[in-house]
Amino acid sequence: MRERSYPPPYPDGWYRVALSSELRRGDRRYLECLGQEIVLYRSDVDDSVHAMGAFCPHLGAKLSDGCVKAGNLQCPFHGWEFAGDGRVAHIPYAKRLPVRARQPTWPVCERYGQIFLYHRGAAAGACKPDTSQDPPYAFPHIPDLDDGRLVYRGKHNAGTVHMHLLEFAENSVDFQHFSPLHGKMFVPWTKIRVPGIEIIHEAAWELETDPNLRHLAYFKNNAILKILGRTIQRTRASAKITFYGPAGVVTFRFTIPDMGEMLMFQTHLPTAPLAQQVDFHWFAEPKIPSLLVSYVIGNWVAQWQNDVGIWENKIHRDRPLLVQEDGPIMRLRRWFSQFYPDGGGIKVAAPEAVAAGE
């Protein structure tokens, strides 16, 4: 019932599939994600990373059981070799190669200590997605990571959360859940509540206005602590959350007054229709003490855990009963629908029409 209530589980976009450190030169890794079976490998020639269909088109052997040889992936069964673009590069016993044959491949980008893959779903009427096309938008460059102003400070594997990716995106515009779920302070990294402290949220959501960057959306939040009933202005901190596509890759930029900035990746990799592998990977200015970095990141993770319990047990309402004070939920869904070849069947009725019961 839950799965049937949601749009298709694998919207088009960039997804993190591994840490760079998990794939050394010549390594292979088998992946089941995004409704696909994929082999990820790193060249033994130039360290480039490639992703292709996990099973040999010859007689079906599992390519991750083979080896990397002179930049090609060699099948363990008959020694066929495949180049990173999916071409058959060598068959040890054949005089002629099947030059038109191509093993499915996926665009890959390695950046900031992580490996990302672009997934494209099948268009209406097509049996399989066309993985040969270039992604409609490149994986982003983040200037203060590129120039070293922010440096790597840590990572956290949060495991699997049983939810649809749309829920995380929709959460950013559901302003009315902030007080009941995120209005209390918790000990960072835990579900232990800190008594006497409330969090006041000032939230906003907006789309990128550049028509060439329609895949970007932004959630902005200012948080102030209320301690024993008194609002303490010097506790004000701000966060800008950027969605690079349908929430497979999201960055959080935290600004702490008089201290500096931190940037955290939160990534979701769909491993099944209602299952997301969630990872956190963060950077900060070197001058910010490690304890403060851990506090800020851990506080976000503690708050995020409050949402998980809701996400894992709810269904999707394609025509929700909304009131005027609810956030721009239907606008978010309209934006999210672009990441499906056919819109994903997402209902985008105007909120006022739904609120009126139409």
What does this structure look like?
There is one protein chain. The protein has 358 residues and is α+β, with helices and mostly antiparallel strands. It is 15% helix and 38% strand. The protein is built from seven helices and 19 strands. It has helices at 2-5, 143-146, 165-171, 178-182, 290-311, 329-336, 351-355; strands at residues 13-19, 28-33, 36-42, 49-53, 67-69, 72-74, 81-82, 88-90, 105-106, 108-111, 114-119, 151-161, 184-186, 193-207, 216-227, 230-244, 249-256, 260-272, 275-284. A hairpin with a 2-residue loop joins strand 18 and strand 19 (275-284). The chain is globular, with a radius of gyration of 23 Å. The two termini are 24 Å apart.
Key features of this structure:
alpha+beta, 7 helices, 19 strands, 358 residues, 38% strand, four-stranded antiparallel beta sheet, eight-stranded antiparallel beta sheet
- Secondary structure class reads alpha+beta
Strand content: 35-45%
Q: Report the order of strands and helices.
A: HEEEEEEEEEEEHEHHEEEEEEEHHH
Biggest sheet overview: 8 strands, antiparallel
By DSSP, the count of extended strands is 19
How are strands sequenced across the largest beta sheet? 12-19-18-17-16-15-14-13
Mean pLDDT across the residues is 93
Stretches where pLDDT is under 50 for at least 5 consecutive residues are 351-358
SS summary, helix count: 7
Outline, from the CA principal axes?
globular
Q: What fraction, in percent, of the residue positions are helical? A: 10-25%
Rg result: 23 Å
Distance between the termini: 24 Å
